[in-house]
Amino acid sequence: MKRFKVIHAPTAVGGNPPALSKALRAQGIQSECCIISQNYLAYEVDRVLVSADSRFLQCELERLKFIFECLLKYDIIHYNAGTTIATANIIEWPVRSKGLSSLKRFVYSVYLRGLQCFEVSLFRLFRKKLFITYQGDDARQGDYCRQHYAVSIATQVDESYYSDASDAFKKKNIAYLAKHCERVYALNPDLLNVLPAEAKFVPYSHVDFSDWKASYDGLRSQRPLRFVHAPTHRRVKGTDLILESLEALEGEGFAFELILVEGMSQAEARTHYEQADVLIDQLFAGWYGGLAVELMALGKPVLVYLREEDLHFIPEQMRTDLPFINANPFTIKDRLRDVLCMSREELVDLAQRSRAYVERWHDPMQIAASIADDYLASINTRLK
Fold it and tell me: What is the model's pTM?
């Protein structure tokens, strides 16, 4: 087999890029994950270019150096979070009333867009193979959501979250990168509505099952059921509706506990996940997140909103196997009540099916093998 080197960059969103890289290494492929900077979640990666306290010019110098390093060192550049090493963004004309800061943002945006074009053109000139994965709001667009969905994140955020400008930028950037990438991947099925027709759905692959062990002891105990909810953005996740529903159920006499996880590193948050019994995930995105995969691996049932209109993008057997309690903003209270009324035997059965589901559909080794095949096909095409 042709030997090749892979770099995953420039972020570690959701832990998916470093985990995919690790699974590729386990299959004999030279693969690394490098990110520009680390955030509070602190996912383990092979390399962080700049520290949190680095100065602006130092950060940009490291970014430029890394682009040329990739040119010399790697055969395949796998972008993630819908962006390149030059993390291009919207170019907005300076607003006079906002003064110098607005002008600085404009100049920086122009610089990043130009650097992205230079980066991609350079890699293509030297016949590097480019791949890209979209993971959520890096592709999701407000105008599409508002036109096609009754329930979506777009109904919960202000106009700046999905602005006309951001929608237009995403459309343009998706088209530009798709033209230069060998393969476009999406971790959420709804994204395939706004990505090129040839884009491919791939499940999250960030959980090592040898490390995330299932336990059903909490569900089998006689203590009150323990829910966990971990919002990164309360309105996007439907947190207020969840809290209101739980408060109402408590008023009806139901006994339970709630663990609310916010602003913690992944390692710190995991200790709380392990103590929980049931995850309440997200109510507006229409699909489950990487957190749900982690909790199912731990043997926890999951309440989440699954949008029926998008399920045709996933494999038919995957649709059949879905083990979730489907709860939307209008039914969350009823679904929570259903869970509280379930017997512990029923909950354990659902938890076991959840673990089996992630073992089948979120196995990092299987997903990495499929992506490795795509890599190899692109390398072989170059050699012909």
Answer: 0.93
